[in-house]
Amino acid sequence: MNLKISYVQKEKVDADILIMGSCEPLWMISPKIIEKKTALKTYNLSLSHSDFSDVFLSFYLYLKNNKSPQYVFLFVTPESIDENYNMFHSYFFSPYIGDPIIDSVVKEMDPEYFKYTNIPFLKYAYYNNNVNFAAFQGFKHFIQNKKTPYHVDGYEIPNQVNWDNHFAIFMKQNPNGWKYKWSGKREKYLRKTIALAQKNQIKIYLFESPLLNEIKPFQLNRKACLDKIELLAKDYKTDYLLFDTMQIANSKKYFMSPLITNVKGSNLFTNMFGNYICDNIIKVKKKCAVMKH
What is the dihedral of CA 25, 31, 34, 36, to 10 degrees? Predict the structure, then answer.
């Protein structure tokens, strides 16, 4: 039903580097570029508009069928801690109901749906308007005996647009800026995701990709949220990597919305991100220095 989760359940991805999060890394980080720089197989497990409970379960399912990666890079931004942004997608996990871990999360996040999951076929039909397109895609793949999804490495190339009007509409609604609301539930599943990585001896790093600088003054408690995320990372003796000082953050020409880069911006960020991984994390500077050119 969810093609990416189905793919990593049925096929061996066995990535050395795993990218996880919501829309931003999904559209901003190309595994092909990371692989060229690090010589490590990379997969983008990010899911569109997903919260940390989505991320936790997709990571859990990935590990059930694949070897543990050496490194996980998990996208975290103030917006992802606020329940007004992103969501839990119960229907992503309907094929896996019956697994105790899946059941516990679905029951907590969507108790109304969970009540009906033991009724034959209803666990699929409950959200059928959300999954019909993916189901038809899956059926077509089955008929064609297609073994790979459309995006084999998990990366979806962003729309090739320079800018949209999302920011203008949002600013009209919030002319004095806005404050993010820290969610205990979001924090819980962020922590569970980090703990799951460390339980499997995986080095996990939290990161935030570049965002358009002109939006920052309107994020009234951005610094307080970033400080809190950094403290959370320290609880697990890991780092929170911020890339908001990149030059591309100064110009709309690299973005299609305030938090998401377009094709050109995504390529520039992924190149820089790959260099950072080489030089500061896997520390194979000699090899990476050659690959940069």
Answer: -160
Q: How far apart are CA 2 and CA 6, in angstroms?
A: 6
Residue 20 · residue 275 · CB < 8 Å: no
What is d(CA 265, CA 243) in angstroms, rounded to the nearest whole number? 13
DSSP three-state, residue 157: coil
Q: pLDDT digits over 119-151, tens only?
A: 878 888 888 766 666 667 777 777 888 777 767
Query: How far is it, in rounded angstroms, from Cα 142 to Cα 64?
Result: 23
Predicted TM-score of the model (pTM): 0.90
Q: Are 33 and 165 in contact (CB under 8 A)?
A: no
Distance CA 73, CA 36 (A): 17
Cα distance between residue 142 and residue 215, in whole Å: 45
The DSSP output letter for 78 is G
96's CB contacts (< 8 A; 6+ apart) are: 61, 102
**Digit-coded pLDDT (tens) for 204-224:** 999 999 999 999 999 999 999
Question: Cα separations (Å) of 156 from 9, 88, 238, 266?
Answer: 19, 20, 28, 11
Domains and CATH numbers, the chain: 3-292 (3.40.50.1110)
Closest CA to 80 of 113, 56, 115: 56
Closest Cα to residue 183, out of 229, 217, 236?
A: 229
**Token reading at 160:** 């090739």
What secondary structure does DSSP assign to 6-59, as a single string? Answer: HHHHHS----SEEEE-SHHHHHH--HHHHHHHH-S-EEE---TTB-HHHHHHHH
Tokens (6 digits) for 52: 């940390």
Q: How far apart are CA 74 and CA 240, in angstroms?
A: 9
SS (H, E, C) 52-65: HHHHHHHHHHHHHH
DSSP structural state of residue 282: I
